[in-house]
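User: I'm curious whether this sequence folds into something compact or stays loose and floppy. Could you predict its structure so I can see for myself?
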Amino acid sequence: MSDQPVEQEEQEQEAAAPEQEVDVVALIAERDEYLDHLRRVTADFDNYRKRAARDQQSLATRAAERLVGALLPVLDDLERALEAAEEHEEAKLEEGVRLVHRELAQALRNEGLEEVPTDGTFDPHVHEALMARPDEEREPGAILDVFQKGYRLGDRVLRPARVVVAE
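Assistant: Here's the prediction. I'll summarize afterward.
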C-alpha cells in the first residue's frame, strides 16, 4: 500500500508538468513584452532630453540675438563719437557720448533692467553700505551718497547700490 501513494504523486506531477511548461512560455513572452516597452520608453526619454537641450540652446541663442541687435545702434553711435574725438570736436564728442549712454540705457531698460532706488533709507537687500557718516540733519539709516548705482533685472538684484549711510 505504500507504493500506491508514490505512484499517484508521480502521476500528478506528470500531469502538472505541461501546465508548468505553458506558464514558463507565457512568462518569457510577458518578459519580452516588458523589455520591449522599457526600450521604447528609454528611447522616448532620450529623444525628449535631446529635444529639450536643443530647445534650450535655441532659446538662449535667440535671447542673445535680441540683446545684441538692441546694442548694435549703441555700437554705431560709439563709433561716431570716437570719430568726433579724432577730429577734436569736443561738443560733438560730448553729444555722441550722451547719445550712446541714452541708447544703451534704453536698450537695457527694454530688457527689463531697473535702477535700484537710492532716495530713502538703507535696505540691505538692494544696498551695500561702504561707510557710515554722522549727519545731524538726516535720520540714521538714510542714504547720504551713492558711490555706484545698483541694478536689478526683474526680482533679482544684479548689483547692489554702493552707498554712504547716515549714522
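Summary: The CA atoms of residues 1 and 7 lie 10 Å apart. The first helix runs from residue 3 to 86.
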